[in-house]
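To fix ideas, we reproduce below a protein record of this kind.
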Amino acid sequence: MGLNKSDFIEIAFTGRFSDNDEVFDTNIKEDAKAAGLDIKEVKPFILAIGHQMLPSGFDKDLEGKEEGKEYTLKLSPEDAFGKRQAKLVRMIPTKHFHEQKIDPVRGMQLSLDGQLVKILSNSSGRTLVDFNNPLAGKPVTYKYKIVRKVTEPKEKVDALQDFLFRRKFDHEINEGNLTFKIEKEFEPFVKLFSEKISELTGLKVLFEYVTKGAGKEEKEETSKKEKE
């Protein structure tokens, strides 16, 4: 039986540029090693189908596929990482970089306002910066295998935390409730995604506040739970 939207799966994949077969991304250890990629941790990737956890064309291709089978998918730039846009190439006064103790050099890639950018040139006190996705404008090919369908609630929650938060908050799953044990300061951040987490896991999201720096989830006297 084929997979459906919102199913969680573990997927193994390798992405290559269609024009030269160069690997740009993979979570398969052998492929990473063969391509000479400096990937510190190659690990399984768990995602929810149809919720933009992969490039749009890749995400759409997963519906109807079957566990254990291997597939090859070619994507145009529009369905992969988008077309390059001239409006995303901008001139910025070099002093803004110097204020952050950055010396912009042609070819440098760095994070600017939380976005990966590339320095195209630097002269006369001005720096030309490319805000396009580094993979924009490139046709790509993915080879992938759906390793298994994921049904365990904890695996689903951990996968969503990796994708949404880039970290894992301590939590407890009990009787249809998902209780995040967090410091009060993180509540607004987690709440931004609590509706999506509930939608995809079927769990009611609650919060339990812990004291900052507590060693073993030491609770505040005012610990409470809130329904989202």
User: Anything to note?
Assistant: The chain has a mean pLDDT of 90. The chain has three domains: 1-83+136-150, 86-130, 152-228.
